[in-house]
Specification:
By secondary structure, the chain is α/β, with parallel strands linked by helices. The chain is built from 13 helices and 14 strands. Helix 4 links the parallel strand 3 and strand 4. Helix 1 packs antiparallel against helix 9, helix 10 packs parallel to helix 12 and helix 10 runs antiparallel to helix 13. The longest helix has 22 residues. Bound molecules: pyridoxal-5'-phosphate. The site of pyridoxal-5'-phosphate (PLP) has 12 residues, from helix 3. Pyridoxal-5'-phosphate binds next to helix 3. Its cofactor is pyridoxal 5'-phosphate.
C-alpha cells in the first residue's frame, strides 16, 4: 500500500523525520565528553517538559520499567498504599506495588471516568494514624481515554504526608502537568507516547520529599536504584550503557517541543480531542469517556454493537493503511481507540475521520458521508480564527 501507515495508536506514535535523522548517527563513547553534553541537555529539556527542578533519571526501559523504578525506590514492603484506578494502567501500577510487598488498597472508579477527589478525601480523613504512605494515580488512562485532574487530587490531600506517585506515561507532554507547582512527588513517563520517539526510554522525576523517603527505603533493587543514577549523573554518565541512538532522538524531539513551547504543545492536544469528539458525536457514535474526563491524548469510541470494533479497525487498516488501537480486556471489540498524541497534525485527523465514515457506511451504519468530517472541519476552522 502507498505511503507510510497512519499510526494513530496511543503508543507507539509516529516519529518526525527530524528525529529519525538525528537517531541515524554513529555510536560514541558513553563515558566521554560528547555523551555528557547530550545527557545534560536532555535532562534539562525533560525538566522543562515536566515543569520541575527536581532530579530526573532516564532508564532504558518501557514505561512499565519506570513504574517499577518508582515503586522499588519509594515504597517499602509492608507499607500501606492507596492505589487509585480508573482502568487497566491504574490496575497495573497497583499490581507492581503489591508484587513488591506493599499493602495495597485499591480504589476503583468506573471506566471512562476520572478519580472522584471527594471519595479520596473521605478515605484520607479516615486515615487518622497516617498509615497510608503512598498514593498511586494515573495521569492519562490510556485504556479508556479518561484523564485525572492531578491538581485537584493533590489539593484534597492537604497536609497528609503520603507521597503522590504519578503514572504520566501517556499524559506527559499531551496534558497539562506541573510537577513542582502541583507538588507531585514522583512522576514517570515514557518515550513512545507524546515524546515522539520509539519505545525504549522511561523518565523518572522525584521531589526532595520523595528522596528523603528513599533514604529509608527497604525494597530490593539494583538496576533501578536511584542512588546509582544520581551518582553517575554527577559525572555526566548513566550507570549502565545507555541506548545512545534514542538519546540522539530525544535531544531532537525535546528541541522540537521546546521550539513550539510546552503550553502550545498542550493546547494542540486539547484541540485534537475536540476535533475527534465533535466528529464522532456528529457521526452518531458513542464515546466511552464523559466530556469532563475526556483525554487530549486518546479517544475511545464505542463501536456499533452489530458491527464490533475490530472489524472496523481491520477494514481501516486493509483499505486505508490506518492503524487504530483496539479495546483491552473487557473492552475488546467494544471500543476502538484513536491515539492523537505526539507527532500528529489536524489534517491527519481529517483523513482518519473521513476513512472512518466510509468504513461505517460500508458496514451498513446509517450515516450520511461527510457529517463527521464537517463537524471536524468546523472545530478546526474555529481554532484557526483565534
Ligand atoms: C503506555 C503506558 C504505560 C507503559 O507501557 P509500556 O508498554 O511498558 O511502555 C504505562 N502507563 C500508561 C498510562 C501507558 O499509557
Amino acid at each position: 500500500m502507498m505511503g507510510e501507515p497512519y499510526l494513530l495508536l496511543p503508543g507507539p506514535t509516529p516519529i518526525p523525520e527530524r528525529v529519525a535523522r538525528a537517531m541515524n548517527r554513529p555510536m560514541i563513547n558513553h563515558r566521554g565528553i560528547e555523551f555528557k553534553d547530550i545527557l545534560e541537555d536532555v535532562v534539562d529539556g525533560i525538566k522543562k517538559i515536566y515543569r520541575t527542578e527536581s532530579d530526573v533519571l532516564i532508564y532504558p526501559s518501557s514505561g512499565t520499567g519506570g513504574l517499577e523504578a518508582a515503586v522499588v525506590n519509594f515504597i517499602s514492603p509492608g507499607e500501606k498504599v492507596l492505589a487509585l484506578s480508573i482502568g487497566i494502567f491504574g490496575d497495573r501500577f497497583a499490581s507492581i506495588a503489591s508484587n513488591f510487598g506493599a499493602d495495597v488498597e485499591k480504589m476503583s472508579f468506573a471506566w471512562g471516568t476520572g478519580v472522584d477527589p471527594e471519595q479520596v478525601k473521605k478515605r484520607l480523613l479516615e486515615d487518622k494514624n497516617r498509615e497510608i504512605k503512598a498514593i498511586l494515580i494515573t495521569h492519562n488512562e490510556t485504556s479508556t481515554g479518561a484523564f485525572n485532574d492531578l491538581k485537584s487530587i493533590r489539593d484534597i490531600m492537604g497536609d497528609h504526608p503520603a507521597l503522590l506517585l504519578v503514572d504520566a506515561v501517556s499524559g506527559m507532554a499531551a496534558i497539562d502537568l506541573k510537577m513542582d507547582e502541583w507538588q507531585l512527588d514522583v512522576v514517570v513517563s515514557g518515550s513512545q507516547k507524546a515524546f515522539m520517539l520509539p519505545p525504549g526510554l522511561s523518565f523518572l522525576a522525584f521531589s526532595q520529599k520523595a528522596y528523603q523517603v528513599y533514604l529509608h527505603n527497604k525494597n530490593n533493587k539494583y538496576y533501578w536504584d536511584i542512588a546509582e543514577g544520581l551518582k553517575y549523573m554527577e559525572k555526566g554518565q548513566t550507570p549502565f550503557t545507555p541506548p545512545i541512538s534514542l538519546y540522539y532522538g530525544l535531544q531532537e524531539a525535546l528541541r522540537m517541543m521546546l521550539e513550539e513551547g510546552v503550553d502550545k504543545v498542550i493546547a494542540r492536544h486539547k484541540g485534537y480531542r475536540d476535533i475527534v469528539r465533535a466528529s464522532i458525536k456528529a457521526m452518531g457514535l458513542e464515546l466511552l469517556a464523559e466530556d469532563r474526563y475526556a483525554s487530549p491524548a486518546v479517544t475511545s469510541v464505542v463501536a456499533p454493537q452489530d458491527i464490533g470494533a475490530n472489524p472496523i479497525r481491520n477494514y481501516m487498516q486493509e483499505e486505508f493503511n490506518i492503524v487504530l488501537a483496539g479495546g483491552q480486556q473487557k473492552l475488546d471489540n467494544v471500543i476502538f481507540r484513536v491515539g492523537h498524541l505526539g507527532y500528529v497534525r489536524e489534517l491527519d485527523l481529517l483523513s482518519v475521520l473521513a476513512a472512518l465514515e466510509i468504513t461505517l457506511v460500508r458496514f451498513g451504519f446509517p450515516l450520511k458521508l461527510g457529517v463527521g468530517l464537517q463537524a471536524a472541519q468546523q472545530v478546526i476552522y474555529e481554532r484557526h480564527q483565534k
